[in-house]
């Protein structure tokens, strides 16, 4: 397996401390704090460790404090309910004796039912797109060190944005974007793992969509952005080692908060999952 993906896989091998208590390691991805998607995915993995024969269909979470990627995170699972068809779990992520994240998820026993979905947007295929997600060496040399560190760090997922990004100048764009993504190597046929990794990667770029129409995203130095909450609904079985399209839009921003929604489609057009997120989007006056 590709070493970049192998490192991420080890992050999802949680240590069981007690029946409902787990510990996970963190990883520096170039951001100043623990990546929110990591905590989201690990919390889901901890909840899954207490559920049998059911798959996650929805989750809701709040980011309370910044996490320190130099220290482990403890996940405490509350087995809220096991019903005939559904199971509910609550998870609290703890670091240095404080709650940094709260999470609830619902799991369902598989059953057939009525089906419909929105059609996938018409966009270029991932194979026809260059990798716009990273700056060239010439442009990278002109970027601030912190921004360069984040953008150039090796990642376990590859991204193919449909639109090219101007890394040097803040531009105003429509409040929407589409990005193809997939894991950099083949993964085991483990549905739990694929759902947890989909939760992990769903945090990339979502709330940043709300900054696009304001011209205050990268490389603006006077913008503070941080995830406040994250919700996700799983509609169909994911496969994160094949190309998935993340179609994101932002209906509103107000009160120093930006709201964004996302739809994740498989390459053949199936709607796999939906996401929603609100984040802090505070412009600091210089």
Q: How does this structure look, described?
A:
The chain is α+β, with helices and mostly antiparallel strands. The protein has one domain: Porin, CATH 2.40.160.210. It has 5 helices and 12 strands. It has helices at 3-11, 36-48, 137-140, 145-152, 191-201; strands spanning 15-18, 21-24, 55-63, 73-82, 86-95, 98-108, 157-161, 176-183, 223-234, 244-254, 257-266, 271-283. It has a 12-stranded antiparallel beta sheet. A hairpin with a 2-residue loop joins strand 1 (15-18) and strand 2. The longest helix is centred in the first third of the chain and has 13 residues, at 36-48. The mean pLDDT is 92.
CATH fold annotation: Porin
CATH architecture: Beta Barrel
Poorly predicted segments? none
Count of spatially separate domains = 1
- Main-sheet strand order equals 1-2-4-5-6-3-9-12-11-10-8-7
As a percent range, the share of strand residues is 35-45%
Structural class by helix and strand composition = alpha+beta
Largest sheet: 12 strands, antiparallel
What's the tally of helices? 5
Quote the distance from N terminus to C terminus: 47 Å
* Beta strand count: 12
Mean pLDDT: 92
How large, in whole angstroms, is the Cα Rg?
19 Å
CATH hierarchy, class? Mainly Beta
Helix content: 10-25%
Supply the CATH superfamily name.
Answer: Acyl-CoA thioesterase, double hotdog domain
Tell me, what's the shape? globular
Give the topology string: H per helix, E per strand.
HEEHEEEEHHEEHEEEE
């Amino acid at each position: 397996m590709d070493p970049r993906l192998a490192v991420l896989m080890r992050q999802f091998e949680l240590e069981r401390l007690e029946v409902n208590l787990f510990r996970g390691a963190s990883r520096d991805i170039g951001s100043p704090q623990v990546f929110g998607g990591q905590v989201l995915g690990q919390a889901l993995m901890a909840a899954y460790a207490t559920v049998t024969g059911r798959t996650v269909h929805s989750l809701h979470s709040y980011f309370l404090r910044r996490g320190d990627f130099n220290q482990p995170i403890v996940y405490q699972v509350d087995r809220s309910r096991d019903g005939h068809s559904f199971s509910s779990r609550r998870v609290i992520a703890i670091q240095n004796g404080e709650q940094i994240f709260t999470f609830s998820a619902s799991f369902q026993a598989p059953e057939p039912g009525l089906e419909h979905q929105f059609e996938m947007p018409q966009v270029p295929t991932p194979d026809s797109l260059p990798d716009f997600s990273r700056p060239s060496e010439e442009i990278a040399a002109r970027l601030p060190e912190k921004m360069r560190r984040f953008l150039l760090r090796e990642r376990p997922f590859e991204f193919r944005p449909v639109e090219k990004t101007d890394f040097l100048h803040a531009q105003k764009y429509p409040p929407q974007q589409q990005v193809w993504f997939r894991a950099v190597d083949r993964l085991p046929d483990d549905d739990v793992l694929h759902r947890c990794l989909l939760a992990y990667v769903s945090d990339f770029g979502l709330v940043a969509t709300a900054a696009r129409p304001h011209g205050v995203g990268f490389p603006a130095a006077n913008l503070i952005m941080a995830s406040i909450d994250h919700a996700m609904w799983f509609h169909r079985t994911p496969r994160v080692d094949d190309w998935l399209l993340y179609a994101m839009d932002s209906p509103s921003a107000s009160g120093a908060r930006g709201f964004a929604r996302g739809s994740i489609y498989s390459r053949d057009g199936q709607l796999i999952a939906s996401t929603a997120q609100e984040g802090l989007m505070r412009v600091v006056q210089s």
